[in-house]
Q: What sequence folds into this?
């Protein structure tokens, strides 16, 4: 929640409207632009600062380069009672994933669970956004994805064959905010490395290795290094199986076919995702389940703390607090980002926030 | 694959027959005993040495104490098209999970995916056994469970409210062995701590903390410590959401209701699991999928290695090699275990292996 060069705060409504104007200016149909702007703003409201408006210049660049299909035929290409494969037709990832989540929810409504694989999508922002969609229907959501750039190597290897493939799981509670886990399978997200570089800070040991296996702590040399997986070979294993489930199973990119979308604005990324919706009352009455989740959260929060620890956190709790704060008080925008977005607004001939 | 006090090797058939005799001797119906013996032996064949015959004395103790129902009515209690809740009626976990996996496979055959939650089960051995069951039908398997003893605390806390809740994922390949990830959400499994204690060795930093948050390296003091989750708060988050999915969603034990089955032989453990079966050809033609998995495995295995690394492993590869070795040459049994099982055989009045 800390902003390095804390600039001004902007109301979410104006923030969202600006994103919409920018996307419309580069040719996105108005209703699609509004949907994407809404989800990107939600990312920023929840504090996923590397996944919201921060990405707008990159999205605009890719759209202008023809790397995103602005008139995609997003559709189910194969399906059975509770499973489906969605083809995103190289549309914006947000639109593809919103569609896929709806399919999963509809399947789960009828069959108890819906598992939807996605191919030919694009970067869709934070994993939590999609895992949380089933919450609106009192369902549990699980999301997996293949990332859009490889920053990890197999355990013991030096070739970047794996992305930091994330998982998100969202579980509703009664009075507590939903439990929302959203994590990369690397020790830190690559965004933290870029942030350290921007700030001219060194990285701690344990984030990255160089190609000879030595700790790499200078973020300016990050291109020459690999991010470490959580738990060593365990995080490698998680990234690998998430890649199989979200990528290869869906005919999406994974491994050497992954397109680094930071370096290439044109080649379709063929991004793969999975969204699972799970209908709670197939297993347990909804209200007693939510009450039990509250109970577990309270047990955890009130349990004894280690010396020096103020509060035991629950996954998603901080993002929820950020959402409430930013909805009430606006979303902060660092000065550097503000300058870059003002420039973008100028280029597109639209009004800034 | 190393055996500390390498005793003799025994053929799997005799090994399995001995387990069967022991279970029959304590009153398990013959066909159930054979099924459990088969799965326990499979655990040993695959090198999950802490989860096979090693557990037999404990299982026998619990059965004799009345802590396991030998005549369980294992059944689906609620279901929809693709999801079901199985009640294990406090039967042996192996029987309950074999039943649940069959339900998941049958659902997936019809609906593309089957998600089966389980309650009132018991310790069922290694996670991989059940994740691998869908492989026989060319399906992907995913397994989650709540462990039978709490060894982890919430991140920043000192109360053991969480088990090292494991995940297993099994994905078939074409010519390569299936990819089988089987991992606890802790840095190491508690079995490794017990092994260090047995051998009188110290543990490295990073396995456990004491209640004040200081590294705990003496395994004799393990009772006073907590196992560290992989990736710090990330592994805590994974353990928590797996507990919600495998435990609370199914009305099974989780958190303070977890029964430590190492200390209590009588109280039903109400163990919760999840097994998911996923029909591959809903998404991608089976053969091309398996070929693509092979391709990814080959890319990884042939990729450049760090200095000092001989081979880049694939999850499940070592267990598969162990299986081939032990099927051909017998399963090794450390002398201490052999002594304890000979004693058990004497007590039960049955022949040893």
A:
């Amino acid at each position: 929640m800390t902003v390095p060069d804390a600039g001004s705060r902007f109301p979410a409504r104006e923030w969202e409207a600006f994103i919409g104007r920018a996307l419309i200016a580069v040719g996105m149909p108005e209703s699609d632009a509004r949907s994407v702007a809404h989800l990107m703003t939600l990312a920023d409201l929840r504090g996923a600062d590397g996944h919201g408006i921060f990405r707008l210049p990159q999205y605009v660049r890719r759209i202008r380069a023809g790397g995103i299909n602005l008139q995609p035929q997003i559709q189910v290409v194969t399906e059975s009672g509770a499973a489906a494969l969605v083809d995103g037709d190289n549309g914006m990832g947000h639109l593809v994933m919103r569609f896929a989540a709806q399919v999963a929810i509809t399947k789960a409504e009828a069959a108890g669970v819906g598992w939807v694989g996605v191919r030919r999508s694009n970067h869709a922002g934070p994993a939590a956004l999609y895992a949380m969609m089933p919450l609106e229907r009192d369902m549990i959501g699980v999301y997996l994805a293949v990332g859009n750039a490889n920053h990890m190597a197999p355990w013991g290897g030096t070739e970047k064959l794996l992305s930091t493939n994330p998982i998100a799981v969202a579980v509703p509670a009664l009075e507590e905010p939903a439990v929302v886990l959203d994590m990369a399978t690397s020790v830190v997200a690559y965004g933290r490395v870029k942030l350290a570089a921007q700030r001219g800070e060194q990285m701690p040991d344990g984030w990255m290795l160089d190609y000879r296996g030595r700790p790499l702590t200078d973020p300016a040399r990050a291109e020459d290094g690999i991010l470490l997986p959580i738990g060593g070979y365990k995080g490698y294993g998680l990234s690998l199986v998430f890649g199989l489930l979200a990528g290869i199973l869906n005919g999406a990119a994974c491994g050497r076919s992954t397109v680094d979308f930071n370096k290439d604005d044109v080649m379709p990324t063929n991004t793969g995702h999975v969204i699972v919706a799970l209908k709670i009352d197939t297993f347990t009455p909804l209200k007693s389940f939510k009450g039990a989740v509250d109970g577990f959260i309270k047990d955890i929060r009130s349990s004894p703390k280690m010396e020096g620890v103020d509060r035991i956190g629950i996954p998603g709790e901080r993002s929820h607090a950020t959402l409430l704060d930013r909805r009430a008080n606006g979303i902060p925008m660092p000065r550097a980002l503000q300058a870059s977005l003002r420039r973008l607004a100028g280029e597109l001939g639209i009004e800034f926030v």
